[in-house]
Amino acid sequence: MASRSSMGVGAGIAIALLTILSLALFVVSVVFYGKYKDASEQLGQANSDYAKIVSPIERNSEQVQRLLDLARNKGRNTTLVSYLTDELGGVMNALVGDRNYTLEQFQADLKANYPDAVGSPLMNFVKAQHRKILEEQDHAADLEASLEDLRNRLDEEAQRYAELNEKKKQEIAEVKSLVGTYSSNVEQYDANLRDTISDMQTRIDDLIDKYESQLASIRAELDASNEKVIILQGQLATLRQEAASSTVKGRDEYALVDATVLSTNASNQTVTIDRGRKHNIVLGMNFEVYADPSLI
Q: Residues 16-44: pLDDT tens digits?
């Protein structure tokens, strides 16, 4: 009886333990299932967040792998995001001096202030600007050299001007001295000239009076001579009238016509007149032909 009771107790204990273990296993399974579910959700969220950073297609790309290698080379605990953030901050700090400056802000500023740099590599634009600066510096150096040369020439001209000015002052002083002498001489000459002019004016007045008296006498004689001429002209006219009444006049020239042209021959340049041998005309005799007797 005692052994049977011991076996019954042992079986009960075993059943109880089995029940407890089953219950514990169930509880553990439920707990682990909950943790598994949470882990799965966290993994899904992590994959979703990771996809926002790098898509599954881009994860195996050569460019992403190169960036990952660069991030690992920078430090064991350096992530790709921190590496890219640090690199972008370094670039912006080098460009504008602000690590928090964004690429969009930089592009907007670049377009607003340097439109020629938009659409081309910035380094090429910087190199081109650097070349321009060097060229401008060379040009400025040339201008500075030219300016220095002009300054030297200006100093020389200033020195030359000072020398000329001093020379002019001396010449002006000499001229003033000569002018003083000439002024004194001119005043003396002016006084003498006035005396001479006064004396000459007196002589001219005397001569005018003398010549006016002589001119009046000559005019009186001329008037008397004109009267005599008028009388003589009257006597001459009377004598001419008397001589004309007693003078024998000859015939007018146009009344002395010897012959008349009967015809002309332009081709032979000959004329035919109404005179011949009976009028004592011989071969070779010359005579003149007039179109009008009044022209003789």
A: 777 887 777 777 777 777 777 777 777 77
Give yes or no for a contact between 296 and 256, defined as CB atoms under 8 angstroms apart: yes
User: How far is 228 from 221, CA to CA, in rounded Å?
Assistant: 11
Residue appearing with tokens 């921190």 = 82
Handedness of CA 76, 78, 79, 84 (dihedral sign): negative
Reference 271, options 287, 256, 257; nearest CA is: 287
pLDDT of residue 255: 55
What is the three-class DSSP state of 168?
A: helix
- Locate 95 and state its tokens: 């460009």
- From CA 107, how far away is CA 103, in angstroms rounded? 6
| CB-based burial label for 87 (10 Å; 0-12, 13-18, 19+) | middle
Q: Report the SS3 class of residue 272.
A: strand
Q: Do the beta carbons of residue 92 and residue 98 sit within 8 Å?
A: yes
Ranges in the chain, pLDDT < 50: 1-4
| Global pTM value | 0.32
